[in-house]
Amino acid sequence: MTLAAASTACAIVVGGIVGPLLLVGGAVILPAAAARILPRLLRTALLLSLPIAISVLVVNLFFYPAGEEVLFAIGPVRATAEGLGFGLETLARIGAISGAITLFYLTTSPGELVIDLERRGVSPRVAFVANASVQTVPAMVERAAAITAAQRARGLDTEGSVLKRLRGVLPLAGPVLLGAIAEIEERTMALEARGFTRPGRRTLLWHPPDSGRQALARWLLVAAVPLLVAARAAGLLSALA
Amino acid sequence: MTLTLDGVRYRYAGAARPALGEVSLELAAGEVVGVVGASESGKTTLCLVASGLAPRTVGGTLSGRLLLDGTDVAPLPIHALAGRIGIVFSSPATQLTGVTGTVYEEVAFGPMNLGLPRPEVIARTESALAALGIESLAGRDPALLSGGQQQLVSICGLLALRPAHLVLDEPTAQLDPAGTRLVADALSRLAAEGASILVAEQKTDLLALLCRRVVALDAGRVALAGPARSVLGDPSLDALGVSPPAPIRLARLAAGAGLPPAAARRLNEALAS
Hints:
A: two-stranded antiparallel ribbon; flat
């Protein structure tokens, strides 16, 4: 989590193209390769960032307000070199951020994260909400699939054109959302009955291992952010632009 | 250790009529009381009120009193009741926390919340798993279990809290006969240790096995109450939408077919054995 947060902050602070690309290489690709998840990471990060990356590139290329050097024109719309440069800079940042977040998602068990956060003094409620939010996604997908199957069995047509598919989605949205809300009420009661709202510290049965080296690496990552901010302010990062 | 409902009347927020009307019930230490009734007769509402969850978390209006060991619990916050009174619902999916990676952690969730010492949490968790014979599931992901297994895990989570009073709303709805038997055995043991237990169930055979007394609800009111044998054998039970236990149905069929009562009794005994 520290690596993802520090990489994200650094990608924003460093700016330019080379800096974020170095971050992608050092803070995303190398750890992912070491964890043997590089293909999955690349696939997931691309899926996450591709739509926004394309729109950022197109908008900046053609509509960058300070663009003067025209590369080519399509009708009245002109692509400018300044727009291309800014678009590529932004893409490099997006790549570094989405890579760091994907690496975090693929390498961190939500349960372990919550236990560790709780051990460090984060409120169990906050930790629970964070974990439950992650865990809810597959549950909602499963519920939606079950409701889709039930609706199809009763004749709902969800195949065909985009418009037809959209029309088919509407009758599913209500049951999925209302069912989820109804479940929340019963889940709340079950949690209350099991003492979840009791004030005071919970007993923790275990916590993920945390070596001295890991702690040192975290502190170094945290320290890197203000150092980079200072370096940027002093103009020392212009070589990375 | 008594659980007392004293003239309880409960209305859900926005409802036209009360879901429960003037219900009084007392469960002594070690007593198992069954609740039967058709759909919407008030069984679940009675469980919510008896566990202290209604109106605290559900909203609505409650009159009358819920007493635990003679103390009115109205002024107590809900977390103060955890560990004293526990509830299990019929749907396992909503009772699991959804945030634990193993069955062991799921069962330990309640004792962990109570802030008990670590060895005590471990002892309670392992004892609860053993009580329902699901030690082999300890390392499994609760989300990947069958509905019946999830329900056993939910009940295990309740047992690990070791409450003096238990409220169970159709706890065996998703269980096969073997799972039902395990739950019945665990409840019998808890009752023998002094817990008072309220069980709302459609399976009247289970209630006949477990309960000393049974209450039949109809439209939120007590229609029949008394010793289990007499209520479950009452001819008006069918009209309340409740199917009597198999031996009683069999005896009635035998009588209807003209079998002498002694022969019907022997048939019953043979089936029971």
